[in-house]
Design a protein that fits this description.
about 40% strand, eight-stranded antiparallel β-sheet, 2 helices, mainly beta
Length: about 450
């Protein structure tokens, strides 16, 4: 296989909202393949095997793949994209057209002539496209196949049997399943994500909801604000969900074609022991950058310092320090998603902390009944929760995590927010600076 190479780039995601969904142009149906000489001569897996990470490559030989369409833009959750799967792997194809589902329905078998097309990745996800936009040297972009070239590259073989979704557990989710049609069983939406709109239909923004396996593990359901089902609410029960698997960085994600992919016909998961209302171990968050998790708030009251995700000994944690800010006052907030306490009893909060180079900076655990979740938490009323916090490791990183203990929340009711508030400074003589580094991990809320 031959191709041309370009250096590392980032690509536009097919998860972008369909900004022009109201302007649907009719395209000619793909030519019907009727000959016997044209055959697939490579597999989708071979594309993955030959791809050089961080590059995009143009096909200059006569490679041909064939596969079955497993997703398209029928309900506007996949933007200018179809997903093609063969017996070896699956890949998304970016196509510059709307209403693709009319000519490329789910279940259609296509032959794709790759000569002249490009492949590249977005967030580690391999995609096929029609060219490369190099107008911005700092953001080289894979662009869709132009509509005028659809008939050149795509040949219909007719309708075929849709692949059976691959049933996988949390531990079986890995990059070899990118773009594959999968089914996840014994799963439910996190309690904070039940009865929520699948997408943001008002602001036309993509929304992430946490899906929790009953046996442990989290994936995120991504839904475009342009999806026809964006204003439908997520179910409260548990069951199975089918969709296209993807990853962004290290975050495991799923996209559904429509709400029929969600079959939550059972009661919520039954656990041996306390029910878990909330859990976050930060393992699905990209390290070495500012912490960003759907529905969490990471805010700087003063000092412009934010919580980061750090990885240490293959463990990811939320990290905060005033070191290097050169600020007289650093106050930073990390706030959990809102937790409803009216539907349970005996609630308890627990977490782990670790300190490093402790010189007096503070870490408090706070709870508020009146914070609106929209920024500026310092204007809300907060109560201090008593917890064991790591301290005293003045010469380096503490050897072990400190357990917070079980913090009783049963005296509170309604919708509450819980926050980690850091206070420190990084100016003046070294002896007066307070820039302790704190790590937070395994934040859990349970109920009886």
């Amino acid at each position: 296989m031959k191709w041309l190479l370009i250096g590392k780039i980032f690509f536009t995601s097919f998860l972008l909202g369909n900004l022009l969904s109201s302007c649907v142009k009719k395209y000619d149906a793909p030519p019907i393949y009727a000959g016997s000489n044209l055959k697939a001569n490579t597999s989708i897996k071979s594309l993955y095997d030959s791809h050089l990470a961080g590059n995009n490559e143009q096909f200059v030989d006569n490679e041909i793949i064939t596969g079955i369409v497993t997703a398209n833009d029928a309900n506007d959750n996949f933007y200018k994209t179809i997903v093609l799967q063969d017996s070896t792997a699956a890949i998304s194809i970016r196509m510059d057209g709307f209403g693709l589902s009319a000519n490329y329905p789910i279940g259609m078998r296509l032959m794709v002539k790759l000569n002249g097309m490009w492949m590249g990745e977005y967030g580690g996800m391999l995609q096929l496209g029609g060219g490369v936009d190099r107008s911005d040297p700092l953001f080289t972009e894979l662009v869709p196949v132009p509509a005028a070239l659809f008939s050149k590259h795509f040949l219909s073989v007719g309708m075929d049997v849709l692949p059976t979704p691959l049933e996988v557990s949390y531990n079986q989710l890995h990059d070899s399943l990118h773009s594959r049609l999968v089914r996840l069983n014994n799963i439910e939406f996190a309690i904070t994500d039940t009865a929520k709109f699948f997408g943001d239909a008002i602001n036309k923004l993509t929304t992430s909801h946490s899906l929790k396996f009953c046996g442990g593990g989290t994936v995120y359901l991504r839904t475009s604000g342009f999806a026809s089902f964006a204003s439908v609410k997520t179910p409260r029960g548990s069951g199975s969900i089918t969709g296209i698997y993807s990853e962004f960085g290290s975050q495991r994600q799923l996209m559904i074609r429509d709400t029929n992919d969600v079959q939550f016909n059972q009661n919520r998961c039954i656990f041996n022991g306390p029910a878990v209302l909330f859990y976050e171990d930060f393992e699905q968050v990209i390290p070495n950058q500012s912490l960003s998790i759907p529905q969490w708030a990471n805010l700087a009251e003063s000092g412009n310092q934010f919580y980061q995700i750090q990885s240490f000994q293959n463990n990811r944690v939320a990290s905060i320090t005033a070191l290097g800010t050169n600020e007289t006052a650093v106050t930073s907030w990390l706030i959990l998603p809102a937790i409803q306490l009216n539907n349970s009893s005996g609630e308890q909060l627990s977490f782990l902390t670790r300190d490093a180079f402790d010189n007096g900076a503070g870490l408090q655990i706070l709870l508020s009944n009146n914070y609106d979740g929209k920024g500026q938490p310092w204007k809300a009323k907060w109560s201090t929760l008593n917890a064991n916090i790591a301290k005293g490791s003045v010469g380096g990183v503490s050897a072990v995590f400190t357990k917070s203990g079980n913090i009783n929340l049963s005296n509170y009711a309604g919708l509450v927010h819980i926050a980690f508030k850091y206070t420190g400074s990084d100016t003046g003589p070294l002896a007066s600076r307070k820039n302790t580094n704190y790590w937070v991990d395994d934040v859990k809320i349970t109920a009886q």
